[in-house]
Amino acid sequence: MGIETALYDEPAWYDLLHESGTKEEASLVLDLFRLHGNGGKEVLEPACGTGRLLKFFQARGFRVTGYDINERALAFARKRNRHARLIKSGMTRFCEPESFDLAFNLIGTFRHLMSDADALRHLALTARSLRPGGIYIVQFDLSDYDGQQDDEETWDAREGKRAIDHVMISIAPERKKRLEKILHFLTLKEAGKSKVLKSAYDLRSYDLPQWEALVARSPFKIIDAMIHPELGPGVRDGVFVLRAKR
Length: 246
Fold this sequence. Notes:
The chain folds into two domains: 9-144 and 205-244, Rossmann fold (3-Layer(aba) Sandwich); 151-203, N-terminal domain of TfIIb. Helices cover 26% and strands 42% of the residues. It contains six helices and twelve strands. Helix 2 (22-36) crosses helix 3 (52-58).
């Protein structure tokens, strides 16, 4: 049967599931900041979750700040990042004017903003939070409504006596509704015992014209973009570097 739970309420398991990609993800952000940034040292991660990416930047001499609405994730992040600023807040609320040189939002977290109004508010607050020359790096999957299909991904992770097997199902969005349903099925194994967790939520979908139109209405402009070949039928990974239009 399994247990219904929010994946984000299981930060230790969430962290184990994503840890293997941390260095690659954070290194890309750092490379783009070195290419396009202002050389500053203040880093912000909206919706920082377990803080795994902040740890990478802190270890390289950056001063890091993260915010998230999930108390369990923040508690986990505080244990691993003792010198980080970690704040309970949401993507449509946080703003510290001209305080940061780099902000980043990876692995589709931006798509938890479920309306243009919320997305534009978040972009406006983040733009205000950046110093002159600062950049905001956003990564998420781009949809092709004519070609996208339901998809299933599987991967696993191991650490000592702990293991997790993960199946993620994505239900293709419709152009009009722009809702992509995500289903997670996780088998957690520890100390000879196992349990299955289930988690489900919706994400807002974007094709490239929808995303470009949104940014055009925001205080940002796109100064660089990396759009990778198809990850699955009708889906491409997009990484976008944004700078305020000042």
